[in-house]
Structure formats: C-alpha cells, structure tokens
Design a protein that fits this description.
Layout lengths: L2 H17 L15 E5 L2 E4 L4 E4 L2 H4 L8 H13 L11 H13 L4 E7 L2 H18 L7 E5 L8 H4 L20 E3 L16 H10 L3 E6 L3 E2 L5 E2 L3 H12 L3 E5 L23 E4 L11 E6 H9 L15 H16 L2 H16 L8 E7 L2 E6 L5 H10 L2 E2 L6 E4 L7 H18 L1
Parallel strand pairs: 3-15, 5-6, 5-7, 7-10, 10-11
Antiparallel strand pairs: 1-2, 2-3, 4-12, 8-9, 11-12, 13-14, 14-16
Helix pairs in contact: 3-10, 4-10, 5-9, 11-13, 12-13
Bound molecules: pyridoxal-5'-phosphate.
C-alpha cells in the first residue's frame, strides 16, 4: 500500500470521527476503516488493501457488488423515472415488482405494500395486524406473541419484539409496549420436531389468545438475535396453532428471503404460508434500500371493510422506481443464475471450513445452513481486537456479541470461502 493512500485513509477516518455517528457505535467509532470501492465478493479499502467480504453488506449483496445486470437496470431507470411520489400515481417498475414478488412468495399472499427499509416493513406488518383486529371490532387484540432470540428491527414497534436480552434493545425495555415472549424453538434444523419444542408458545397462545393480534417470528433462521437454525416442522405446527386460536401469523423473511437459507424463502422449507410476510435486505441485491410487506386477501379484505377502510401508512420514498428496477434485476439474476447450487456448495464449504473451530477453547457451537456459517462463542468478542485482526487476514467479518458468522455473496468462489473460513478460524484461535 502506498503511503499516500494510507494517509488519505487515515485523514478520512479522522474527519469521520468529528461528525459522523455509526450504527451501534459511540459518537467516535473505533475501529473504523475507509472503503474505496467494491467488486464481486471483494471490498477495496482506501489504504489499498483488498478484503474478501463475509457479510454481503448486512446480508444484502447476494449477487456480489456492482453486478453489471443491476448496474445496467439502474442506469436505464435513471433515464426515465428515478423517483415519483406513490400517492395517487403508479408505474410499471412497482406494479411488475409486486406481481413478481407474489409469484415467488409462499402461496396465499395477494397484496404488496412497498416501503423503504426492513424495520418499516415489519412496522407495516404489525400495523396491518393491529388494524385487522380494530377493523373487526376487536381492539383488545393488541399484543404480539414472539419467540426469544428474534430480531425484527431498530424502530420502537420492532424493538418491542426483538429478543429481550440479546436483541440489543434491552436498555429500552421500560418504554416499549409489553409483548409476549415464548421460548425459542429448541429443535435444531436437522432435529425431528416434537410437540414439547413448541409447548411454551402453545400454552401462551392458549392463555392469551383473546389479547393476541399476531405471532411474529423469523422462519427457520433467527438472524441478528442469535443466528439460530430450527426445524421447519415447527412452522407447520405453529400455523395449525395460529389457525386454531384465530391468531394472525407474520413471517419476517428480511434476512431469510431470496435464497439465503438454501430455499427461496425460509417458509419454503416447511411449505407453510403466513398471513403477512415482510421482505427487505437482499430484495435489491444490496444496491438500494427497499422492502415490502405482503398480505393475504382475508387480512386486506377485513381492513377494507372496517373503519377507516384504508391502510394508514405511506413513506415518502415508497415504491421508488430506481429501487424497484434494482429489485427486478436481482430477481432476474435469481432466475438466470445457479444460485441454488452456489448456496449448496457454500453451505458445504462453510461447514467444512469452520469445523476446526469447534475444537477450539471458548467455542460453544459451530453450524452452517445455506450461505450462513456461524461460530458461537462462550463470551462476547472484543471488537477492538478482532475487527483489525480480520482485516489483517484479508477478510471482512463483523461479529456481534458471541456470534462470529459468515454470510457471503452467493457468487463467492471456493477459494474465497476458504480464505474466509481459514481467516476466521485463525482469529478465533488467536484471540478467543
Ligand atoms: C435486518 C432485519 C430487519 C431490519 O431491517 P432494516 O432494513 O435494517 O431496517 C428486520 N428483520 C430482520 C429479520 C432483519 O434481519
């Protein structure tokens, strides 16, 4: 790396620390790295170093960075209609995107609300559920039931259903609405599901059924709340229980959607459909922010039949045509590339490559599913030490708490996965 480049990178970090606030960070973020550009599965830092990306920019860049198909779609859309308000106006990119999402989503969903980020897609899902019961004259149905270990976003309604301990929002508990938490599904993905695995949830559902608007959870893979993989059959039983007690079922597939777990959607492992589904993150292949909430007819019909008859929500940038164009290009790539085979290959490579970690002291568990590999530690990592250590290894990995994990783009090569897994194991061995 040249001295000039290193100096420029250092200057940028210094300027950043004077004025910028980073996610989950104190006012002056540390450590912090200046980034220059991205391509494929790699990130180029401003100091000249190149890193293999194990995070897909928070799980969104599934086709790798700056994919020519997505770039071309964005450039073409820029020429005609970059943005227009969505109130009272409509356009081809949005209508066709809603059609396409309904085509590939679990069956039974029939209407789409486009919004601007994952948290908002969950807010809308929750609002739809509450408005459904208000419209039906049942205002007492105003609580949510969820499982421990979940993550649904950082806004106030979504924080209230994040894991009460690991959800990063414990601190706010006193000002959040009081929802119901059941034990998380304890059956591992590959385990046989048994009734006892859902007993706690089933009993809370039974006791509180007249106060509960909906059950909300992430199907098959719990993401930021614990990186936990559980048996798909759990979801089939959950669907039965929700039907029995007439409670709505919300699937948050913001992390699991678009192939990450090995199927197009987490729900597809179980063949189960929710009443409401939220999507985000990799919807645009990691280029622009866009999210969606899909709703079934019986829910939207009930809202239409009640007062005020309209869904009371409308973000300024909803249905942004540029973001819709990126989403189309990403869906095109899912149709035309062998993502399924790639994710399967990556799963095997992550499982094998992370295996040596399971022998190390301080490691509680190692697991892989789809393009997700997790090393769960016994104690939280010290980010100030491990983050620069990963960069030294030439990989971009950003753990949270006890979870050191990889969620690489689907285009990551075997050699790049090998670099990610061996670098990760080396850092865990040295610093945990
Ligand atoms: C990331 C995430 C969200 C929040 O999405 P943002 O775009 O960060 O607001 C919600 N639910 C799940 C499951 C997520 O992984």
């Amino acid at each position: 790396m040249s001295d000039d480049a290193s100096k420029r990178a250092r200057d940028l970090v210094e300027r950043d620390r004077k004025v910028v606030w980073h996610p989950y960070a104190p006012p002056q973020a540390d450590p912090l790295f200046a980034v220059e550009s991205t391509e494929g599965a790699e990130i180029r830092l401003s100091d000249g170093r190149t890193l293999v990306d194990g995070m897909s920019s928070w799980w969104s860049a599934i086709h790798g960075y700056r994919h020519p198909t997505i770039e071309a779609a964005l450039k073409a859309q820029l020429e005609t209609l970059p943005h227009i308000m969505f109130g009272g106006l409509t356009h081809e990119p949005a209508v066709r995107l809603c059609e396409r999402l309904l085509d590939i989503a679990p069956k039974g969903l029939s209407r789409v609300f486009l919004c601007d980020s994952g948290s908002i897609a969950v807010e809308v899902a929750i609002k739809v559920a509450f408005q459904y019961w208000l419209s039906r004259g049942r205002p007492e149905r105003s609580r949510l039931l969820t499982v421990e270990g979940g993550y649904h976003g950082d806004t106030f309604a979504t924080m209230a259903v994040c894991d009460p301990v690991n959800g990063m929002h414990d601190f706010f508990r006193g000002v959040l609405p009081d929802h119901l938490f059941a034990e998380k599904p304890s059956c591992r993905f590959e385990d046989d599901f048994e009734e006892r695995h859902i007993e706690d949830l089933a009993s809370k559902l039974e006791i509180h059924r007249n106060e509960i608007a909906a059950v909300i959870l992430e199907p098959v893979v719990q993401g930021a709340g614990g990186m936990w993989f559980y048996a798909p059959a759990y979801l089939r039983r959950l669907r039965e229980l929700c039907d029995e007690h007439e409670v709505l079922l919300i699937f948050d597939e913001i992390a699991t959607g678009f192939g990450r777990t090995g199927e197009m959607f987490g729900a597809d492992h179980a063949g189960v459909s929710p009443d409401i589904l939220s999507l985000g993150k990799s919807l645009t292949g990691g280029t622009l922010t866009l999210a969606a909430t899909l709703v079934s007819d019986h829910v939207s019909d009930a809202i239409a039949a009640g007062e005020p008859g309209a869904l009371m929500h409308g973000p300024t940038y909803m249905g942004n045509p540029l973001a819709c164009a990126a989403a189309h290009a990403s869906l095109d790539l899912l149709e035309t590339t062998p993502w399924h085979e790639n994710v399967k290959r990556i799963e095997a490579e992550l499982r094998e490559g992370l295996l040596p970690c399971s022998e190390l002291p301080g490691v509680a568990d190692v697991r892989a599913l789809g393009a997700i590999g997790v090393v769960e530690l016994e104690a939280p990592v010290d980010m100030k030490i491990v983050q620069p250590a990963f960069v030294e290894e030439g990989i971009w990995v950003r753990p949270f708490g006890k979870l050191v994990y990889l969620m690489p783009p689907y285009v990551t090569t075997t050699a790049q996965i090998e670099k990610l897994t061996s670098g990760l194991c080396a850092v865990v061995e040295r610093y945990v």
